[in-house]
Design a protein that fits this description.
Order of helices and strands: HHHHHH
Helix content: over 70%
Number of helices: 6
Distance between the termini: 24 Å
Number of strands: 0
Length: about 160
């Protein structure tokens, strides 16, 4: 059977892969943080946001680059920009919006998008806390682009 709409398939496949790899990354990061640091992540946010931010910018994107280039077999640069852009919209738009919806029932989070979404996500993911969220919003996509493209180079 011929794959007539490969880019449409890439949109759906990358969304499902990203959500799955993001959950796996959450489990791996939460389980491994205690192996490297003595303090819990919520008590040392000045260091934990770097650890969480780097792992959440590398681990979901590296295997996705290898898998999706094997699926599409063409144009690795366009594939990198397309998929990383889509996944960043899911993460920094969709997940924060879902966090805002979760936080609307609690008066201390408020109802302001995206601030209240960052407040809810800050409970478990330190890279969304305070001024660290701005650093993660700027540096995370740059690291994700590099990790995804490295994944495409691995699969060649």
């Amino acid at each position: 059977m011929e794959n007539r709409y490969p880019w449409l398939n890439v949109v759906f496949l990358s969304a499902f892969l990203f959500i799955g790899f993001y959950l796996i990354t959450f489990i791996v990061t939460a389980a491994s943080y205690g192996l490297f640091f003595a303090e819990p992540a919520d008590r040392s946010r000045e260091y934990s946001w770097i650890y969480y931010g780097i792992l959440f910018s590398v681990l979901p994107y590296l295997p996705m680059g290898a898998i999706l280039l094997k699926f599409l077999r063409q144009r690795p640069w366009i594939l990198t920009l397309h998929v990383v852009g889509q996944c960043l919209l899911i993460e920094k738009g969709g997940f924060v919006y879902l966090g805002t919806l979760l936080g609307t029932g609690y008066p201390w989070y408020g109802r302001n998008f995206p601030r209240s979404g960052f407040g809810v996500l800050c409970e478990e993911l330190p890279m969304y806390c305070g001024h660290y969220s701005w650093n993660y919003t700027i540096l995370g996509p740059a690291i994700a682009l590099g990790a995804f493209y490295c994944g495409t180079l691995i699969s060649k």
